[in-house]
Specification:
2 domains, 11 helices, binds 1,4-dihydronicotinamide adenine dinucleotide, binds (2S)-3,4-dihydro-2H-pyrrole-2-carboxylic acid, proline biosynthesis, NADP
Length: about 270
């Protein structure tokens, strides 16, 4: 399919980030696409204006793809109200945490019986084309649907098809949630700089530059993270002393990150029920 016409339902943090990526890469047919959001932000309005994307159109001409990007808690009230010409032909992509393909199918059943649904889990760096999106499907897709979903999400960064929904729920703590872990690390480094007597503006500047510098090196160097970590860590030096705290086998970052990913999985299961 050439770039699809697309309806974005919900253009908040994540929907807006995806929209930015799609329009930047020409991945959607902007003039045939629309955003529906009762409270669109100024940047989203400016983006739509610049690319000729309709915002809250009075009439829906119909869309190849509809991306469901409202909060999971809104699905039950919003999905049954969706309607446009040939809605049963539209491919639905959900980005919501937890909500299952079966639930989405039920909520769309009246107007789009047998709807083809792809569940995805993008991540916020999609806004700069550096997201990671997990995808999975429930067995109803037609030929070409998988390629359409992959192409849309690849415009926002890396993609990975999970074997089923449970797999997606398990892995989302590694991808969709993890930008928050990295931002938290930047916050923690800022706090540590403050504790060592650096002023607030400089504390933030040197902490955030440390995180973005390491991330840029990881992206560009080609060596795996473990090799780069070793190249910072002089035997018997200061980093080794620091890592004896941060990389403790039972209380260090690795077991804590693993526990965080498990907590995200547990919450995804709760949101599904
Ligand atoms: N924020 C993130 O990093 C990620 C979020 N997600 C998923 O994305 C979805 C949205 O999350 P955020 O963007 O963070 O939330 P958000 O609160 O920033 O965006 C939700 C948007 O939905 C709009 N909205 C409310 N009622 C609506 C309606 N009736 N019709 C259309 N739009 C409506 C709101 O005005 C808002 O702009 C959630 O399902 C979440 O699980 C998935 C991956 C990452
Ligand atoms: O916190 C959430 O539920 C969403 C999904 C992944 C990132 N944000």
């Amino acid at each position: 399919m050439a770039s699809p016409s697309l309806l974005l339902l919900g253009a908040g943090n994540m929907g807006g980030a995806l929209l930015r990526a799609w329009l930047g890469k020409g991945a959607i047919a902007a003039a045939k696409s629309a955003v529906v959001d009762p409270n669109p932000s100024i940047p989203v309005l400016e983006l739509c204006e610049a690319h000729g994307v309709a915002v809250n159109p009075a009439e829906d001409p119909g869309y190849d793809v509809c991306v469901l990007a409202v909060k999971p808690q809104m699905f039950a009230s919003v999905l049954p109200t969706l309607d446009w010409p040939r809605i049963a032909e539209t491919l639905f992509l959900s980005i919501a945490a937890g909500t299952t393909i079966e639930t989405i199918g039920h909520l769309l059943a009246e107007r789009a019986p047998g709807a083809r649904v792809v569940r995805t889990m993008p991540s916020l760096p999609a806004s700069v084309g550096r997201g990671v999106t997990l995808l999975c499907e429930g067995g109803r897709l037609r030929g070409g649907d998988r390629d359409v979903a992959t192409a849309l999400m690849a415009a926002a960064g890396e993609t990975y098809w999970c074997r089923d929904e449970d797999h997606l729920d398990r892995v989302m703590g590694v991808t969709g949630c993890s930008p928050a872990y990295v931002f938290l690390l930047a916050e923690a480094l800022t706090d540590a700089a403050l504790a060592q007597g650096v002023g607030p503006a400089d504390a933030r500047r040197i902490a955030e530059a440390s995180v973005t510098g390491a991330a840029a090196m990881l992206a560009q160097d080609g060596r795996p993270a473990a090799a780069l970590r070793r190249s910072v860590t002089s035997p018997g030096g200061t980093t080794q002393a620091a890592l004896s705290v941060l990389d403790d086998e039972t209380e260090g970052l690795r077991p804590r990150v693993n526990a965080a990913v498990e907590a995200a999985y547990a919450r995804a299961r709760e949101l599904a029920s």
